[in-house]
Input
Amino acid sequence: MDSRATGSSFQAHPHAKMRLLLKGGRIVDPSQGLDKVADLLIEDGRIAEIGSVTSKADQVEDVSGKVVVPGLIDMHVHLREPGFEYKEDIATGTRAAVAGGFTSVACMPNTNPVTDTRSVVEFILGRARDANLARVHPIGALTKDLKGEEIAEIGDMLEGGAVAFSDDAFPIENSGLMRRAMDYCAMFDAPVIVHCEDKTLSDDGYMNEGLLSTILGLKGIPREAEEIAIARNLMLAKLTGCRLHVAHVSTRGSVEIIRQAKEAGVNVTCETCPQYFSLTEEAVKGYDTNAKINPPLRCADDVAAVKEGLSDGTIDVIATDHAPHAIEEKETEFAVALCGMVGLETALGLVMTELVKPGVLSLADAVAKMTVNPARILGLDAGSLQVGKPADITVIDTSAKWAVDPSRFHSRSKNTPLAGRQLIGAASLAIVGGRIIARNNEVIA
Ligand SMILES: [Zn+2]
Ligand SMILES: [Zn+2]
Output
């Protein structure tokens, strides 16, 4: 939509004037069905040429043996600024992003103040410009102060650069209000992102409900808390015609309900997160609070269903739900610990190790779910290596072997249950607007 601002719009950078040549990589760009070994030339911060490039460049990067893809996009992160800078801020969060291979992120509105006005949206964009690392696209709140009572200034926030709307972890219980919020967003063709949780079923629950929660003596959250909320939101999306995006799908039932809705023509897309195809509730054993997340980690059968959903296209996007928390918020008893885990610096390795290597997804399909698909949903001018597009590029070393070491994270927070996990595949370059920002997981800009 022309009326829609595109968030942090493309900025030419003084250093981007030069010509940077990525030589001899395997270029995988699902936006144009491209998968071939070729050179890629960047000029003035944009993709200038793909093929056998003979013209002179100021800088040449030998990327032979590596994979060159559109810059990865994470459409679900929590950057915690304004208000919770002790967990993360826009500078540290975008450092973590580029170190992990992400060149664009969309951040959720549960900040303080809540991102429910144009001024907070503009503040976030300003802080992102100052940091000058990954591009940042704010997601505005659907309701004022995330209270689920009064619809926020959607149109104003869109003009300020918000790309979607969500109350994320504070889902709107009132179906009538949700309908009006969807109606409103439909008017602007703005996507509505829903965290699906019936709080009357999940309240006071700390992990997936089942045998293990009984053994551990931790109150469980039934899968139905997620599935009932998805079903309602799908019905309301059908009623209103809004563009619905379901966040962090975690159960077999959720995948099946969304698959049926898509077959029935409902305008819905959805995402899952690496934790829901890489971990099960077993990670909670030993009361590891880093494995306390919302929705909770589920069982092997749910993991299998999430993989089926990724593979058959029911699940469109892989996002991280990067949720930094301070040590003291996690090093406490399980019941009191806050929910969430960081994800920006482990996502690519988990996708390569758990999905691409075993053949759950082809490399191109995995890349599509982290580039062109989220770009289309959010209406971003990103996620493609077409000539003329902003040169946001990730170069992947698919054979890099490494172990997760939270002490090396760029994120201000280290809360992950994945410490020590062996992974294959890492970002070797992150390029934003033609400028190399990160190399081998180190930020160099
Ligand atoms: Zn959520
Ligand atoms: Zn979230």
Remarks:
- The chain has a mean pLDDT of 96.
- The longest strand covers residues 19-29.
- The pocket of zinc ion (ligand 2) is lined by residues 76, 78, 108, 168, 321, 323 (CB under 6 Å).
